[in-house]
Amino acid sequence: MLVLIEHNGEVAASSLEALTVARAIADDLGEPVEAVVFTAGTDADPSGPTLGGVSAAEEEALRSRLERLGVSAIHSVAHPELATYSPERWGESLAQLIRRVEPSAVVAAGTDRGNEIMAQAAARADLPLATNCSAVASAPPDDPGATSQNGAGAQHWRLTRVRQGGMLLEDAELAAPVALATIVPGSAEPNDDATHDSSGAARAGQPMAVEVFEPRFDDAFVASRLVERTTRDAGVSLATARVVVSGGRGVGSADGFASLEELAKLTAGAVGCSRVVTNNGWRPHSDQVGQTGTKVNPDLYIACGISGATQHWVGCMGAKAILAINTDADAPMVDRATYAVIGDVADVVPAIVDEIHRRAH
Amino acid sequence: MEVLVCVKRVPASGGTPQLTDDGQRVDTRNLAFTVGPHEECAVEEAIRLVAEHGGAVTVLSVGPAEADEQLRYAISMGADRGVLVETGADELDPQATAAAITGAVRRLEAERAPFDLILFGNESPDAGNYQVGVRVACALGLPIVGGIKGIDIDDGARHARLRRDVPAGVEVYEVSLPAAAAVKEGLNLPRYPSMRGRLRARKAELDELSARLPDAGAGTGAGDIDTVPSEIAIGRGGLRKMRLRQPEEKRTETVVLGRGPEAAPAIVDILEELDMV
Ligand SMILES: Cc1cc2nc3c(=O)[nH]c(=O)nc-3n(C[C@H](O)[C@H](O)[C@H](O)COP(=O)(O)OP(=O)(O)OC[C@H]3O[C@@H](n4cnc5c(N)ncnc54)[C@H](O)[C@@H]3O)c2cc1C
Fold first, then answer.
1. Cis-peptide into A103, omega within 30 deg
2. Helix axes A13-29, A112-125, angle to 10 degrees
3. 8-state DSSP, A326
4. How far apart are CA A287 and CA B85, in angstroms?
5. How many Å apart are CA A101 and CA B141, to the nearest integer?
6. Residue B120 β-bridge partners
């Protein structure tokens, strides 16, 4: 079984989860887990995990780290054309590796990049792909006739996919000679030390093999080229803030956000909003929380005049606590919140700001 | 330039999805339908690109006959033509969907002009398989980048620059045309249809094709043009939906801190407790 590892010297947390899930399946099947790492070039991205190249020292660290994670071999994918990220080249490389290694399954993190590379690989290897799985297990089919058209050598897998940003689960069956799946972040407790298997027995301590795999690209290979990369300043961002002060239709106007901004400033938080707000042009889309915006997981999410539609909810349900401020005591957001204040945003938020100022004196 | 936008008909409800008894689908009997926000932005972008560079916008949907509603909405925004690839009520797996789109594109290109740009939503709001655009692009030999929030066309040089947000910042890709992109909401602010647009859409004549799964067949369809003129041959992919279900939800009792501005001290107590002020 292969696991695609996103790393930036350090293994990305999402890949650690994917590795943990893959480990469990592989243990069941009595198979080893092998890592796929893209190592060529200088794609290293200072502020986020990528599959880019790393220095020799970092590679050594990565190697021993993967060894401790119970990986028995690394497929180091190397080619000058892989120096910068390209969805098509990385996907094609993975497809070629799949043909070479013939693994039972390939697992990756369900990140934007993980899904992109796996979709490319699946298309090129003509294999099905199950994205954003919360559970994967090898299983015989319920109804052997139903999926037999996938040909000889097809293996059967049972899996659960997350749909609608987490509002629904889909139990599905995958029949394919090689199963491709991505694991939705947050679905497994990452296992940091896999030197022992689930029964507690030490894994065979063979030294880990590193195999360099060089993909081939013909001259006519069609690919997009990464030509520019800018790094965001490390300020308070919506995705990482401890407090998010978020406004919906109930804020009433762009100007109505002034008091929300002030509250965010006083709490060192970030301002968020609902889709109604971005559609009205009151805030930029980069502030939007939800299924088609940003998913946030602050310690406190303050939802001001937001009804709590499911597409918004899936973006804020990761918050430790939610305070809903709403005129409607029956709004779904109030129902699901930890704390609620029934009232008008235009009255309540300025009163909070005043109270903070009052106590500061 | 010729731009194609692929859209999917999905429920528009913000309520907790209710399922049919057999767990095969969301019960949509009382729901309105829409195209996802990513796709609405794709339509808007196509209309703007064609306004600037000339050409036409074609919108295509693979789905039930009722998906004509979504095609007409895109036409009311300003798209020129709509193509419905009818597949019946059941949702196709992503390989079959991609085969249907690929087959339709080949047919449309053979009959008229080739497309310079094919736009997809990054993922559909309901199934969210994150792969249909990539599969179509690969089958057609086009480059594709996902998560796109900015498109600049250099028509003379036949290039496009595609911009996307990544966790660390921003990436810009260059592709030569023809190309494909999977876009995300935030690419632009979609317009509301005008009265004139609505009237035009109501009367618009749609191109109708169909794609059907064989009752029992072999392999995945490559979207080949079949012998029946309006029919596209597709095969079932390897991913099969068995059942939908609701996830367990941890419900906590809501603590109502009060009504109106009088609740402010109680709120600030909590902010202090959490060490936020
Ligand atoms: C495919 C799809 C994807 C979507 N993605 C997203 C997404 O990413 N993010 C998102 O937010 N939405 C998304 N939506 C839209 C979503 O369904 C809702 O329409 C939207 O979240 C509603 O925004 P809202 O809560 O601000 O407005 P409303 O639903 O209109 O709610 C306004 C709330 O404010 C309250 N209120 C009104 N006046 C006041 C006042 N003066 N003081 C206090 N409270 C007041 C009302 O009681 C009500 O609860 C998506 C929809 C679809 C179909």
1. no
2. 50
3. E
4. 36
5. 25
6. B182
Give the residue from A4, A228, A271 showing the smallest Cα distance to A121: A4
**Contact of A192 with A120, CB cutoff 8 Å:** no
Sequence-ordered strand ranges (E) for B37-143? 56-63, 81-86, 117-121
What domains can be seen in chain B, in order of their start residue? 2-245 (3.40.50.620)
d(CA A266, CA A346): 17
Residue A182 DSSP SS3 = strand
| Stretch A105-119: mean pLDDT | 97
Q: Can you name the residues that pair with B150 across neighbouring β-strands?
A: B163
Q: Which residues 185-204 in chain A show a CB within 8 A of chain B?
A: none
Task: Tell how far CA A167 is from the center of its chain.
Answer: 16
Would you say A301 and A319 are in contact if contact means Cβ atoms under 8 Å apart? yes
C-alpha to C-alpha distance for B277 and B267, rounded to whole angstroms: 11
Of B14, B19, B169, the CB nearest to A230: B169
Q: Which two tokens stand for residue A347?
A: 């009255």
In the chain, the amino acid numbered B174 is E
pLDDT tens, residue by residue, B195-209? 999 999 999 999 999
In this structure, are residues A120 and A89 in contact, taking their beta carbons and an 8 Å threshold?
no
Going from the C-alpha of A313 to that of each of A167, A280, B3, B14, B191, the distances in angstroms are 9, 20, 34, 9, 25
Task: Give the one of A116, A285, A332 whose C-beta lies nearest to B146's C-beta.
Answer: A116
Residues 6+ apart with CB under 8 A from B228: none
A188: which 2 tokens? 């497994």
Tens of pLDDT, residue by residue over B2-57, are 999 999 999 999 999 999 999 999 999 999 999 999 999 999 999 999 999 999 99
Q: Phi-psi bin for B260: left (phi > 0), alpha (psi -120 to 50), beta?
A: left
Q: Pick from A117, A10, A27, A3: which is nearest to A63 by CA?
A: A10
Q: Confirm if B61 and B70 have CB atoms less than 8 A apart.
A: yes
Check if the beta carbon of residue B43 is closer than 8 Å to that of residue B62: no
Q: Is B97 left (phi over 0), alpha (psi -120 to 50) or beta?
A: alpha
Interface of B with A in 169-208 (CB under 8 A): 169-175, 179, 184-186, 189
pTM confidence score: 0.94
pLDDT tens digit sequence for A58-72: 777 888 889 888 899
Measured CA to CA in angstroms, residue B67 lies from B20, B32, B35, B79 at distances of 20, 12, 9, 15
Which of B18-23's residues contact partners 24+ apart within 8 Å by CB, and which partners?
Answer: B19/A168, B19/B244, B19/B245, B19/B246, B23/B243, B23/B244, B23/B245
Among protein residues, the one whose CA lies closest to atom 30 of ligand 1: A249
